[in-house]
From TrEMBL, chain A:
Gene3D superfamilies tied to this protein: YVTN repeat-like/Quinoprotein amine dehydrogenase (2.130.10.10)
Name this protein carries in UniProt: BNR/Asp-box repeat protein
InterPro entries in UniProt: BNR_rpt, WD40/YVTN_repeat-like_dom_sf, Xyloglucanase_GH74
Pfam families, sorted: BNR (PF02012)
Gene Ontology BP terms: xyloglucan metabolic process
From TrEMBL, chain B:
Taxonomic placement: Bacteria, Pseudomonadati, Pseudomonadota, Gammaproteobacteria, Cellvibrionales
Native organism: Marinimicrobium koreense
Pfam families found in the cross-reference section: ThiS (PF02597)
Record protein name field: Molybdopterin synthase subunit MoaD
InterPro entries membership: Beta-grasp_dom_sf, Mopterin_synth/thiamin_S_b, Sulfur_Carrier/Prot_Modifier, ThiS/MoaD-like
Length: 394, 92
């Protein structure tokens, strides 16, 4: 049973504890510091928060005493020589008929630590971090030291080996303006999945690129975007350029993966070898950011739909969660306990989680809601939180 | 010896620097910052990125002159100078 909820917010980390029949937030942690992701390592209970200091650079913060004390660590850095193809934004003199012939490169620095994931039970100390710009970092000592996964950094889809110079420079990873308060037009890794059957089996998802899979612990990577459809590119079935907002996996049926994508909800029941679009615009299920999948049943998933790309807010002013129990063939709108008038919340990619029958989500409007019956009914945990970026149960 | 003054925000992370007169041997801005790092390990990670470049929302001044060279930090801080470290605040 879930007894603690972790929120990453614009003004710090919020821990909410079960107190009898109710829930009560503790005094805010990391007060005043934007926290883009906070989670608990299920293996040893260590708490993690990805801090997004506006001035002092991204840092990780770690607590080994349940949140009483925290150590900020700044060991996650790009190594010397890590460079990438910099996005060239259109400028007033940009000529689409004669785009620059030579890519521009930039030395990589960590703009944001966007997601954290934990290794398998037999990998003590193994952690993963996904960053903007597009780095997958690995630690095997509980976060003390980090190493950039070079096969992914140097993947052919993003221009080849930019360390050694043996590069094709044909970059398929687009930029993302996704950030907390400002645009960072570099591709970011926001979803890292470790297969519970085999910790060397990994999936990552990259905004404006797509999903990649490794079956050898990160030595090699391959794109897994078959069946994906894009609304915004001339070839909607291109290998790259997809914009997953979040990708997740059913722990009990790891071949079942879900992604809430910029262009709809997609489902795979073959380990991401192929995807199918399972949106249902009639119930509003299409555009959104987060997706959660049941821990045991890979066909059951929840999303928090929003209006389209152009208007990122609720549909008709009512906040609802949509659930499918049949692999996305049908969706049910769950509204009981959620505001149905004058609600304009948007729920970001990491801000919905499920644990057993418990679901929780938080919005950038600072509202947090909890269901303990799989979404049938909801209770409000608070309306005056800072903008909420992540919600994790347990 | 040059003196170093900094925004109080940094004392949150480096309380050992608070309520002290901070000084370092004369040298480049980079050398002075790294001298502070000797007193407060990790300090440069907050002011500089992993390339040694001043973070976007941090400003440095030598006396009343803003440090323009934010990449190599070669400006010299002489005896009697003060190096100021500011953060550029905005928004809420």
């Amino acid at each position: 049973m879930t007894d603690t909820i972790l929120l990453g917010t614009r003004k710090g980390t919020v821990m909410i504890d079960r107190r009898g029949a109710g829930w009560r937030p503790r005094p805010i942690l990391h007060a005043g510091v934007p926290v883009c992701y906070a989670a608990r390592d299920p293996r040893d209970g260590t708490l993690w928060a990805a801090l997004d200091h506006g001035h002092w650079g991204p840092k990780l913060s770690r607590s080994r005493d349940g949140g009483k004390t925290w150590d900020d660590i700044s060991s996650l850095k790009y190594p010397e020589g890590a460079r990438h193809i910099a996005q060239v934004l259109p400028t007033p003199d940009f000529d689409p008929e004669a785009p620059a012939g030579t890519p521009e490169y930039a030395n990589a620095t960590v703009y944001k630590i966007w997601h954290l994931a934990f290794g398998g039970p037999d990998q003590p100390g193994r952690l993963y971090a996904g960053t903007i710009p597009g780095g997958l970092f690995v630690s095997d000592d509980g976060g003390g030291t980090w190493e950039l996964n070079r096969p992914l950094w140097n993947h052919e889809s993003r221009g080849g080996d930019l360390f050694a110079g043996d590069a094709t420079s044909e970059n398929q990873w687009g930029g993302t303006p996704a950030s907390i308060d400002y645009g960072v037009f570099e591709p970011g890794i926001h979803s890292i999945i470790v297969d519970p059957r085999d910790p060397n089996h990994l999936h990552v998802a990259v905004s404006s690129a797509g999903v990649l899979e490794s079956t050898d612990g990160g030595k090699t990577w391959a794109g897994r975007n078959r069946g994906m459809l894009m609304d915004y590119l001339p070839n909607p079935e291109a290998d790259w350029g997809h914009d997953p907002h979040f990708v997740t996996q059913c722990p009990g049926q790891p071949d079942h993966l879900w992604q809430q994508n910029h262009c709809g909800v997609f489902y795979s029941d073959d380990g991401a070898q192929s995807w199918k679009k399972v949106s249902d615009p009639n119930t509003g299920v299409n555009f959104g950011f987060p997706v959660a999948v049941d821990e045991q049943d890979g066909r059951t998933a929840w999303v928090v739909p929003g209006r389209s790309d152009a208007q990122r807010m609720t549909i008709d002013g009512g906040l609802f969660v949509a659930r499918t129990e049949d692999g996305g063939q049908s969706w049910q709108a769950l509204r009981n306990g959620l505001p149905q008038e004058n609600a304009h919340d948007i729920v970001l990619r990491h801000a919905l989680d499920v644990s057993g029958d418990c679901l929780c989500f938080g919005s950038t409007t600072g509202n947090a809601y909890l269901s303990e019956d799989r979404g049938e009914t909801w209770q409000c945990l608070g309306n005056n939180f800072p903008p909420i970026y992540s919600v994790r149960l347990g | 010896m040059p003196t170093i003054k900094m925004t109080s925000h940094l004392y949150r992370f480096f309380p050992q620097l608070q309520d002290r007169t901070l000084a370092a041997p004369p040298g480049s801005v980079s050398e002075v910052l790294h001298a502070i790092n000797e007193q407060a390990p990790g300090f440069t990670d907050y002011v500089l990125d992993e390339r040694g470049v001043v973070r976007r929302h941090v400003k440095l001044c030598i006396n009343d002159t803003i440090v323009i060279d934010r990449k190599t930090l070669a400006d010299q801080v002489e005896d009697g100078d003060t190096l100021f470290i500011f953060q550029a605040l905005s928004g809420g």
